[in-house]
Write the structure tokens for this entry.
Amino acid sequence: MPLPTAPAEHVERALCVLAHPDDVDFGSAGTVATWTSAGTEVTYCIVTDGDAGGFDETPRAEMGPLRQAEQRAAAKEVGVSDVRFLGHPDGRLELTLDLRRDIARVIRRVRPQRVLTSSPERNWERIGASHPDHMTVGESTLRAVYPDARNPFAFPELLADEGLAEWTVAEVWLSGSPRADHAVDVTDVLDRKLAALRSHVSQVGHWPGNRLEEFLTGWMRRNARTHGLPESRLAEVFHVVHTA
């Protein structure tokens, strides 16, 4: 059968797998807001607690719990209540079987039709999108989608010990990709995206004045222009991969 040529118009469940608290909000919170407004149930799976982040002298032992709380607050701004943390080390992620199993476990529990994650490809034009943790999570998630989560013989302990049957994800949306092919108009939910990002006080609290809004709108306006939207619109962009 031929693969679809466009993303599904609506899905019941979506899972966002990102490396750090705030990753989903910088790249995708507007898109998530459009999904939840349309009735899609969205779950966040954050691989680390973000304890290597921040800009001040907050003790490292306090940073992880603080960033977890910030991510939960940010999620509420865009209609997400289910936020899960895997607890892997911030800044030291590697492509391991343990990480693949942990992500496959969440996929089998949530059973999403759509998964959003970071691109595993380095983006030479936007090097900030290519943090090693981002690329590792993107590649690990793609491997968890195919073949791990759908193969009953991959990580058989997930079924034998936890009762988690296989699950096939239909499509994966890659954020930060150098080959983005799908734009989501988020102009009308900009306020919700900004509210989500401003919840990450430990990360953006030192940005002066309107710098955060100016940065985001400038970047998203360029996205919209590149993908053929009118000049006044704002967009988040993704590479959509059909994986069913």
